[in-house]
Amino acid sequence: MKGGRVSCIGRFFCCTLMIAVFLIVSIVLALALWIRPPSIIIGSAGLTSAGTSGIQFQTSGIVVPLEVNISVNNPDYFSVDLKQVTLDLTYPLDGNNTAIGNGSTSDITFHSHSNTTFTFPFEINYQFSTDPNYAILLDMASKCGILGGSQSDITIDYSIKVDLKVILIPVSPTISNSFSISCPFDESELEDFIKSLGLSSIAGLL
């Protein structure tokens, strides 16, 4: 009699556990079927409101503050928390990719059924220590048209790591691509800076 009771309790517990697992799996699958990817619109990167006056020509390099507006439309019935996003920039030249800047932002919530627009700040931080031959500086000068040619866009590679939390589940994708910007410098200021470094003969600015 006792053995039959224990067996009955065991079957009941097993059945209850299986039902609970089934319900959890069903809920997760239902959520997955209803989840729709957000619509993301990324604007064009450009100088901050300070314009060219915000650019810093330093003895160690050049710092260019930039920003880009990003609009995210969340069509789902739950909010998504952006814990942090970090950006690393590299300059592609002659088969090499040299670190040239970064940016980050954090703590943004994309509420359900809403559109959220935020400004992502980042900067080009060009340092002579990573480019002792000034190859990147002269390449940017060339694309800005101060070495005799016509202007063209400056292409920069980037890697973005995004830390999200979706329904209490952490998600951390990494995205790599490139973007192009028009020359951010005042041509005369960049030309004077190159001359101050003693690069006039190399740059053909004599």
TrEMBL record:
<dbReference type="Pfam" id="PF03168">
    <property type="entry name" value="LEA_2"/>
</dbReference>
<keyword id="KW-1133">Transmembrane helix</keyword>
<feature type="domain" description="Late embryogenesis abundant protein LEA-2 subgroup">
    <location>
        <begin position="70"/>
        <end position="169"/>
    </location>
</feature>
<keyword id="KW-0812">Transmembrane</keyword>
<dbReference type="InterPro" id="IPR004864">
    <property type="entry name" value="LEA_2"/>
</dbReference>
<feature type="transmembrane region" description="Helical">
    <location>
        <begin position="12"/>
        <end position="35"/>
    </location>
</feature>
<keyword id="KW-0472">Membrane</keyword>
<protein>
    <recommendedName>
        <fullName>Late embryogenesis abundant protein LEA-2 subgroup domain-containing protein</fullName>
    </recommendedName>
</protein>
